[in-house]
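pinging the channel bc i need a second pair of eyes. not urgent but kinda urgent?? the chain im working w is below, pasted from the shared doc
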Amino acid sequence: MATITRRGDGQWQSKIRKKGYPVQSKTFATKASAEKWSRLVESEMDRGVFLSTNEAENTTFSELVERYKKEVLPSKKSQQDSLSRMKTVEAALGHLILAAITPLTLKEYRDYRLETVSSGSVRKELSFISVLLTICQKEWDIYLPRGNPVSSIRVPSPNKARSRRLEGNEEEKLMQAAREYGGLIADIIQIAINTGMRRSEITSLNWKNINLEIKTATLLDTKNGEDRTIPLNSTVVSILKNTPRNINSLVFCIKPDSISQAFERICERTGIENLRFHDLRHEATSRFFELGLNIMEVSSITGHKDLAMLKRYTHLKAEDLAKKLS
């Protein structure tokens, strides 16, 4: 039975005590609102469908993010990207209680972000919000009265897939500048072009998982969570044979971000525009197809599980296809 009491000017508190349920209490601006809420809650309790919204009304989005950082993030591979995305989302929504995050709230957030960043970035941010709200419901038993609001809004269309490949004498210019730059970057670029490995896979490459006799390297716990063994061509084998061994058994003692920084500086020096280190993985994938490998063979090298994604990465040069048709 609900007990409604006046608490100061303009405040009415409804308190519901019912056997089998924890005490439910909420304060309203009017007595009519308190009575309406009480009738709704008591009706749901009578029908056995009542779920408390207390946690959703007392937990901020910022608190949810902090819990995610402690309990979920440590198991993620791309932590730096996730942290950057979390910081952006938390700055905009962190002050809100979970119950106040509605489809309208997220529509406004989406439209505001689209004014300054790409649709791809907004898609990733909304995806993070959706993942976080799903986890809080399924794993942390926080009942959201409106469910996951992300499912009720339009998510921006994905960016057009990049199709950037090395053109003309760009590879020669890139390698010359990389050798002049010094350090490990020249060898790393060649390995990326010839194997299609990701930055993180190159930096975690370990001598104990390389067999130069049979020309293979095993990559452990890759981005998709699985190990894979890839073939090494003569170019890569030659590089590895001439690479000094490190005491910690890693082939390259360098951080993924340092690879990107060095690559960006090299591109600036050579005047090569709109080229990212990850495009070298795309270049390698396309070259595998141009060598005549089928989609399953390429997948086994690159580690793509989604063949549609693999197709997106593959942009064969029309002039090379023309030669095959002649």
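so The chain has three domains: 2-50, 58-152, 170-325. and The chain is about 50% helix and 10% strand. — does that match what u expected or am i reading it wrong
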